[in-house]
Amino acid sequence: MTLYLVESELNGKVDNKNDFESKVSSIQEKLKENEVSLIEVQVSKDFSRGFFILEGEDAQAIQDNLKAQDVSIQLIKEVRLVGKELDEVKKQAEQVNYLVEWNIPEELTMDNYLERKKKNSIHYAEVPEVSFSRTYVCEDMSKCLCFYDAPDESSVKRAREAVKTPIDSITEINAD
Predict the structure, then answer these.
(1) CA-to-CA distance for 168 and 10, rounded, in angstroms?
(2) Global model pTM greater than 0.85
(3) How far is CA 117 from CA 11, 42, 173, in A?
């Protein structure tokens, strides 16, 4: 099975946690019917964007399924999980409250990225108030999403500086 990232603009379709959880529950039921697993979903604090990680065989089937459920898809890409094992993520035991997006430079290969990440990750210790959780790297090397638990946005920025990795955007996740 393959992992896919789906980014969605929620456009006022939900505006609170209960409505979002209800929508996700409905989406999850329909996905299961098509043998697609919802691994995790994160939503921005203002409920404007959703980030779904799905496991399935076919991106087109996932896209068709979500569109049939009125999910607005901005992006669907095959991704690789880095930093955690899939079984750990499926348990959803770890809290995250910030998502950093980085548009990866064209010259960086997956092997170079993984080597760089391994080498620089030790520097997270320089910002102990921030806990790095996991990264999803698009297989086409266009971007990655990194998840953190941190007290505030400025501490996430310090952590990214410590590991010498840029930020294209930071989204505060609804963690309530």
Answers:
(1) 21
(2) yes
(3) 34, 23, 23
Cβ neighbors of 131 (< 8 A, separation 6 or more) are 148, 149, 150
Q: Tell me the β-bridge partners of 146.
A: 100, 135
User: What phi and psi values does residue 152 have, to the nearest 5 degrees?
Assistant: -165, 170
**Identity of the residue numbered 152:** D
pLDDT band, very low/low/confident/very high, at 176 (cuts 50, 70, 90): low
86-121 pLDDT per residue, tens: 988 888 767 899 999 999 999 999 999 999 999 999
In angstroms, rounded to a whole number, what is the distance separating the alpha carbons of residues 96 and 172?
Answer: 9
Q: Which residue bears the tokens 């309530």?
A: 176
Name the pLDDT band for 13 (thresholds 50, 70, 90). confident
CA angle 68, 5, 111 (to 5 degrees): 155
In angstroms, what CA-CA distances link 149 with 94, 100, 153, 167, 172? 9, 11, 10, 16, 10
- Sketch out the chain's domains with CATH numbers: 2-79 (3.30.70.100), 89-174 (3.30.70.3090)
DSSP one-letter string for 132-166: EEEEEEETTSSEEEEEEE-SSHHHHHHHHHHTT--
